[in-house]
Amino acid sequence: MHCPLFCLLLALLSFSLQATEQARPKVGLVLSGGAARGLAHIGVLKALEEQGVRIDAIAGASMGAVIGGLYASGYSVAELEELAITIDWQQALSDAPPRRDVPFRRKQDDRDFLVKQKLSFRDDGSLGLPLGVIQGQNLALLLESKLAHTADTRDFDKLPIPFRAVATDIANGEKVVFRRGHLPQVIRASMSIPAVFAPVELDGRLLVDGGMVDNIPLDVARDMGVDLAIVVDIGTPLRDRRQLATVVDVLNQSITLMTRRNSEEQLASLRPDDILIQPSLAAFGGTDFGRATAMIEAGYRATRVLDGRLASLRQAEGDSELALARSPRQRTPVITGIKVENDSKVGDDVIRYYIRQPIGQPLELDRLQTDMGTLYGLDYFDRVQYRIVHKGDDHTLVISARGKRGGTDYLRLGLNLSDDMRGDSAFNLGASYRVNGINRLGAEWLTRAQIGDQQELYSEFYQPLDTGSRWFVAPYLELGSQNIEATLDNDPVAEYRLERYGFGLNLGRQIGTYGEVRLGVGKAWGEAEVRIGQQDLPRLSFNEGFYELKYSFDTLDNLYFPHSGEDISLTLRQYDKALDSDQRYRQWQFNLDKAISRGADTWVLGGRYGRTLDDAEVVTSSFVLGGARQLSGFRQDSVSGQNVSLLRMVYYRRLTPRAYLPLDFPLYLGGSLERGRAWNNDNEFDSSYINAASIFLGIETPLGPLNLSYGANTEHEKAVYLNLGHTF
Q1: Confidence tier at 1 by pLDDT (50, 70, 90)
Q2: What's the CA gap between 437 and 403, in Å, rounded?
């Protein structure tokens, strides 16, 4: 009896709800590109949420695609703000993983030669050049880590908020609008500024920044069926004539001209009901990632000014689907399997070894980020990425490793220069060539040559014995020569030229990414003749055979101007007549540097200690000291003895602000306090303890650290050094 009345009430209620929904306009949000200035979008979103404005669709280009894609996938404004402020943008906008994550063998490459950049060669011998200054490895990993929960969402209309991203096909200049795909990869393509970031190859296209063709994708939002658009324009303003002073300024201006032209076309199509938000960002540049808080505030203020117009769009009830997506539990799937996709020179087992994600446990993003950095640090890949594939209750972690198209054989050049400004100088010019991927286990052949004050030819074949390079064997050949001073009663009487030739074999064990232990046997022979001084001193010929144990440990975050970590090495060597050595004696040497930082200030504490434990020929068994921060005041390697000790404290402070692109050349001012000694076992020479100090100005250039130093010591020795080479 009451059913007709009840059904009528339900019908009326349904009609009322539909009418209300139809009365509310469908709101689209359009977020423009503008590099770091795009962080202002977060402030806009914050103000819109406070006004209760519900966004029904988002279209973005470049940085607008980054912020829009994260928000559309379920990130809250508070989460976006925290990300913008806490992300290490310098690390994200580079390719190199943190040095602590790099495999130990690659860390040792930095010590060989000065020049940081290396030239790569393909298997056919041709030079491989990159398509961008930044390959985008770390940026891609960052996007993957933040969007892992969207891995099975290929249709962007099925995201909590429907989303579109715009990119440009660099081959033909066409606009590419992404309605579906792998969201992190799509966003990465949309923000690939030409020449800065390498293009993204996707579906046969080579894609770059969407801002090149549609920096304010209002037309894309219209195609999504929105009734009105909220358009956020944070485009970079044009520079005037006086501000165009460098080639970089001209390049930036050229890009800005292209983006402003297509932006103005879109702005001209605004309708009366549309809302335009243009934050005041004239004081901010495209690389000002360190000023995220101020740019977010600028976006927020610019939006709150429009509260009156936005009030009509206020929506009382929230979006339950969006609220569910913002639950952190939705972003940490339990991994049920791991799969490797690999086209590089090393085997799948090698890649799998470095992935420590436990099966049957929630995804451990921090550990996975570290593992991916270590993999990329092997130098076999253009990129190493991951994604989560969901199928029912199964969540498979897929590791995708793309081999280097530019080649995996590397040439590095180097120059070490020291001049005490008193007529004594030393230089070393060198090169190293490393052939990678000789077999699927990752064997390498390294050859290093150097001419100058210290001459060297060293060649080593490095063969891993298991998939993780935990155990390895490394035979080597070496030739070298250097100058050694002979001293009597604390006075130099001659300078010998010592030449040594040898070979050896090491069996080693890697200790994570931090260190290694080597046990080896070696054979060497050579001669030493007087170069400067008493010509009647005898010419020496010698044979050496030795056992050696060497331990190395390196956690420095930067080899040249470290801020944290330590560098430790210990070498034990016994010369034995059973190996055809002329003399039987033992030597050991210990080196330590530990960096401690507080803000812009850094202290490096450490030194070295070398001992010869038995009677031996002085010239062939001597260690050397001398030079900047190696008993400052003396010229380079001018203090020698069978035993040496050095303690030092080095301090420096960064004078320049941190940059967020690879063009970051920090300038440091610092000084050192040192105390050292050199002595021989026959008691004919003992320098006694010498105190020394130095001050220096250093800059980390693309070639390496350049240091101008002044040093003095208690032996009344003073020197000015110009060092292009290692800091310590």
Answers
A1: very low
A2: 11
State how far the Cα of 472 lies from the Cα of 508, in Å rounded to an integer.
5
The verdict on whether 62 is a catalytic residue reads yes
The token pair that represents 304 in the structure block: 């709150």
Among 14-18, 146-150, 170-174, 324-328, which is the least confidently predicted range? 14-18
Q: Which residues are 588's β-sheet partners?
A: 572, 611
Backbone φ, ψ for residue 368 (5° rounding): -65, -40
Could you tell me the CA-to-CA distances from 29 to 68, 72, 374 in Å, in that order?
9, 11, 39
DSSP-assigned letters across all residues of 309-328: HHGGGB-SS--HHHHHHT-G
Give the confidence band of 333 by pLDDT, cuts at 50, 70, 90: confident
How far apart CA 8 and CA 127 sit, in angstroms, is 78
Residue 185 is inside which H or E element, if any? Answer: helix 183-190
Question: Which residues on adjacent β-strands are paired with residue 708?
Answer: 697, 722
The enclosing H or E element of 374 equals: helix 365-376
Range picked from 16-30, 92-106, 201-215, 594-608 for highest mean pLDDT: 594-608
Give the C-alpha separation, 642 to 623, whole Å: 6
Choosing from 209, 214, 288, 419, the catalytic residue is 209
pLDDT for 411-429, tens place per residue? Answer: 888 777 766 666 777 777 8
Output 488-495 pairs: Cβ under 8 A, ≥24 positions apart: 488/684, 488/685, 489/684, 489/685, 490/685, 490/686, 490/687, 492/533, 493/533, 493/534, 493/537, 494/530, 494/531, 494/532, 494/533, 494/534, 494/537, 495/530, 495/531, 495/532, 495/533
**Position 690 confidence tier, pLDDT thresholds 50, 70, 90:** very high
664 confidence band (pLDDT: 50, 70, 90): confident
Q: What is the pLDDT of residue 388?
A: 86
Q: Tell me the C-alpha distance between 396 and 338, whole Å.
A: 6
Between CA 238 and CA 38 the distance in angstroms is 17
Determine which helix (DSSP H) or strand (DSSP E) holds 255, and give its type and residue range: helix 247-267
